[in-house]
Amino acid sequence: MKTDKNIVELLGEKADFYLEHVCEKITKDELQVPSKNSLEKVFG
Fold first, then answer.
1. 6 vs 22: CA distance, rounded Å
2. pLDDT tens string 1-44
3. Distance CA 12, CA 2 (A)
């Protein structure tokens, strides 16, 4: 995919560092995923 290659090129030598990172401090349960009407709730 062209977009993937562009991202890797932009990240340069650190591409693997950023793209292969696995966070060990924050679990999936701690994340707050936005809903479809998140902006409306905040700004509406």
1. 22
2. 678 889 999 999 999 999 999 999 999 899 988 888 988 988 98
3. 15
CB 1 within 8 A of CB 9: no
Token pair for 35: 């809903």
**Counting beta carbons within 10 angstroms of the beta carbon of residue 1, is it exposed (0 to 12), middle (13 to 18) or buried (19 or more)?**
exposed
Q: What angle do CA 30, 33, 34 make, to 5 degrees?
A: 145
Residue with the two structure tokens 């009407």: 37
Buried b (16+ CB within 10 A) or exposed e, 5-43: eeeeeeeeeeeeeeeeeeeeeeeeeeeeeeeeeeeeeee
